[in-house]
Design a protein that fits this description.
This protein is an alpha/beta fold. It has a single domain, classed as Rossmann fold (3-Layer(aba) Sandwich). Helix content is 48%, strand content 18%. It has ten helices and ten strands. The strands form three sheets. Strands 2-8-1-9-10 form a five-stranded parallel beta sheet. It has a three-stranded antiparallel beta sheet with strand order 5-6-7, with helices on one face. The chain has a two-stranded antiparallel sheet with strand order 3-4. Helix 1 packs across helix 10, helix 2 crosses helix 6 and helix 8 packs across helix 9.
């Protein structure tokens, strides 16, 4: 029996499987799962719909003035899969489209957006055991997390996974387009001034290029078990 809330941070590159791992960990452990990436995607969708971003240029002044209009929530579907709601609308499928993926790094690089999301993420997880995935969870959101995992994989592997995921949803995007988008997002995420993507010093690295979902989950659960036993 847990006597205190436990925080598990899962960070990593785009399409490396960190969200899948975080969801599966939360189910196994009975913890709350929070998809921080979906939150930034929801803000990006809001910006696109309201013409606050054109290409890679964000009208930051207008976006700042409207941040308080953005409400993000998570609900579970009949299969216990998390759904993202933007101002009461289920946008789970729309935020995964390449249109949002191609712009989310520009939105998430804005310090004011990151501050709002971090505050919301901490509020969502207050006094609860959670698994949260993203790019700055172990370094910024939960610097004192009980366990920090940093997930990576070769870019060709990540691009193929993303291609297969979109194809399953009948979204036709070329492999090269996806790979180029991932490379661009990697660069922006790692080089932004505010909360760049990086492995926390005390995070455990998992390269899942040659691991299937079950192997990755088994490895992560062994890390959790060790932390809980030590705690």
């Amino acid at each position: 029996m847990l006597t205190r809330p436990v925080k598990i941070a899962v960070d990593g590159f785009s399409s490396c499987g960190k969200s899948t791992l975080a969801r599966e960990l939360s189910r196994k452990l009975g913890f709350i799962y929070i998809d921080s990436g979906a939150m930034y995607r929801a803000v990006t969708l809001f910006a696109i719909r309201n013409k606050l971003i054109e290409g890679d240029v964000v009208d930051e002044t207008k976006l700042f003035s409207r941040l308080d209009e953005i409400e993000i929530n998570f609900e579970l579907d009949s299969d216990n899969n998390p759904l993202t709601f933007l101002n009461g609308e289920n946008v789970e499928d729309e935020i995964r489209h390449i249109t949002v993926s191609s712009k989310v790094s520009f939105i998430s690089a804005i310090p004011e957006v990151r501050l709002k999301m971090v505050l919301l993420q901490r509020a969502m997880s207050e006094n609860k055991s959670v698994v949260m995935d993203g790019r700055d969870i172990g370094t910024v959101v939960f610097p004192d997390a009980d366990l920090k995992i940093f997930v990576t994989a070769a870019i060709d592997v990540r691009a193929q996974r993303r291609y297969d995921e979109l194809a399953a949803k009948n979204q036709t995007v070329s492999f090269d387009t996806i790979k180029n988008n991932l490379a661009e997002r990697d660069y922006i995420d790692q080089n932004r001034a505010d909360s760049p993507l990086k492995k926390a010093e005390d995070a455990v690295l998992i390269d899942n290029s040659d691991l299937n979902r079950e192997q990755q989950l088994e490895l992560a659960l062994s890390l959790v078990k060790k932390v809980l036993n030590e705690g």
